[in-house]
Amino acid sequence: MNSKIKQILLKKNKSKIVSLTAYSKSVAKILDKYCDIVLVGDSMANVLYGQKNTHKISLENIIQHSVSVKIGIKKSLLVVDMPRGTYSDPKKALKNARTIMKKTRCDAIKIESNKNNFKVIELLVKNKIPVMGHIGYTPQFKNKFKLEGQTKKEINKLLEEAKFIERAGAFSIVLECLTAHAAKLVTKKLNIPTIGIGSSSYCDGQILVTDDMLGLSGFYPKFVKKYTNLNRIIEKAAKKYTREVKLTKFPTKKYFLNG
Ligand code: KIV
């Protein structure tokens, strides 16, 4: 087993797993110092490409950004999302996952789980491709946002799904937008670590979309804490640059190439 994955597994019930998304080398290089896991998420659809859902992200898109991210990664576990439609049956999933692993040299892939794709996880794991599962609000399969695990029936379904994913061989699982009660229960019942997003502090780790927590994406649901406001910082810099160019204050002689 990949030694980075071993380290992630050892954190269960001991220390929290820190994870964020990245789509480029420059951001990955900074996050790598702090994160246990860096995810190249298909959230790039919303964040980078201005699309309203994640459905149009292609294998080529995810590979291109992951190759860039990999250059910035030294120590953290690099996980790459499989785009919608690329793992709709086990054979197709294996071919595409192999392509992602080979071209990006990532450590693992993530797939959004539904009750029909446990066989996909099983086949990938059997072929030595480490898999991170993803349950709850899964944007590739659900069009409308909903808090998951609000009734006993929903909680039992989530628990059952999570157990199936664990049995299929996944090394961890993202819990997206689960009630605190459901997240706590799933985390307690699984041996593999849970990584929460919008799912309370009861998970074994946390993930956020980096552009959201930096205040850059313009998407700030209740579960997102903005750690800074990059929108404001960039705007201020762009405004100052504009003024200086117009007033011929930039570039001054200091920036002339020939002294
Ligand atoms: O695509 C993504 O960034 C994700 C995280 C939100 C878990 O799947």
| Secondary-structure element order, N to C | HEHEHHEHEHEHEHEEHH
Question: What is the overall silhouette?
Answer: globular
| Physical arrangement of strands within the biggest beta sheet | 1-2-3-4-5-6-7-8
Q: Which ions and ligands are bound to the chains?
A: 3-methyl-2-oxobutanoic acid
Helix tally? 10
How much helicity do the residues have? 40-55%
List the defining traits of the structure above.
alpha/beta; single chain; binds 3-methyl-2-oxobutanoic acid; 259 residues; 10 helices; 8 strands; TIM Barrel; 41% helix; 2 domains
Walkthrough of the structure:
- This protein has 10 helices and 8 strands.
- The chain is of the alpha/beta class and 259 residues long.
- The chain has 2 domains: 3-228, TIM Barrel (Alpha-Beta Barrel); 229-259, no CATH class.
- It has an 8-stranded parallel β-barrel, surrounded by 6 helices.
- The protein is globular, with a radius of gyration of 20 Å.
- The termini are far apart.
- It binds 3-methyl-2-oxobutanoic acid (KIV).
- 3-methyl-2-oxobutanoic acid binds at residues 21, 39, 41-43, 81, 174, 197, 207, 209.
